Amino acid sequence: MNKNNIINIGITVIVFAGITGASLFASPFHAKAWDNVRCNRNVTGIVSDANTRVGQTGYAALAWDQNPAWTAMIPRAHWIWDSYKVQNPESDQTVFFFNDLNVIGKPAFGSVTIAADNFYKLYVNGIVVGSELTNENNFALETQDTYNILPYLAEGDNIITFEVMNKGVLGSTPESNPAGLLYNMKAVGITCQAD
């Protein structure tokens, strides 16, 4: 972290995205202006669970998660799909998942960790911020991905979209070719006010 992005006020350390200490304290006026300012760090997050939306009107189902190859570990997240088990494991199936992330204040941090069986694209506010379109084994601990999403976040509501495809395998069963999405997304917003 760049030390110019940290401001010490008494014993409290406050981090501001995009504001340097030099620009804040360039004159006595600026230093005086910050004497009675209180800033709050507002942490928000979303995880894959039954509250994730599927398509236009439905909600995700907790997916069958007994595949021993699924070793991805993402705190508080559950494997989800549009049904408990894949309906047709021999055919490719793409499912769109949606969630909202409300950032309270100016975004200062944003991160997502994701695993999927098999391929995915991650969108934040309509912009692709990450994808895995070649490694069909993106469900293992060593292949789960983490992205910095701070540049794509806005203050207030952010629309998160996951486009996930399960690759069909001829002769497979729902147990031998399961499908799923696993994610945990966190954001921090900073709000400041004068006392």
Q: Please, could you describe this protein's structure?
A:
This protein is elongated. The protein contains 2 helices and 14 strands. It starts with 5 loop residues before the first strand and ends with a strand. The longest helix has 6 residues, at 28-33. By secondary structure, it is mainly β.
Return Rg in Å: 21 Å
Lateral strand order in the biggest sheet: 5-4-8-13-10-11
The CATH homologous superfamily name of the largest domain equals Galactose-binding domain-like
**Mean pLDDT reading:** 86
Please tell me the CATH architecture of the largest domain by its name: Sandwich
Residue share in helix: under 10%
Q: Which word captures the global form?
A: elongated
- Assigned CATH class of the largest domain: Mainly Beta
What is the structural class? mainly beta
Question: Uncertain spans, ≥5 residues at pLDDT below 50?
Answer: 1-32
Q: How many strands, what sense, and barrel or not for the largest sheet?
A: 6 strands, antiparallel
Topology:
Elements: E1 6-9, E2 12-15, H1 21-24, H2 28-33, E3 37-47, E4 53-54, E5 58-59, E6 61-62, E7 80-81, E8 93-103, E9 106-117, E10 119-124, E11 127-132, E12 145-148, E13 156-166, E14 180-194
Antiparallel strand pairs: 1-2, 3-14, 4-5, 4-8, 6-7, 8-13, 9-12, 9-14, 10-11, 10-13
Short description, anyone?
The chain is mainly beta and 195 residues long. The protein has 2 helices and 14 strands.
Keywords:
195 residues; mainly beta; 14 strands
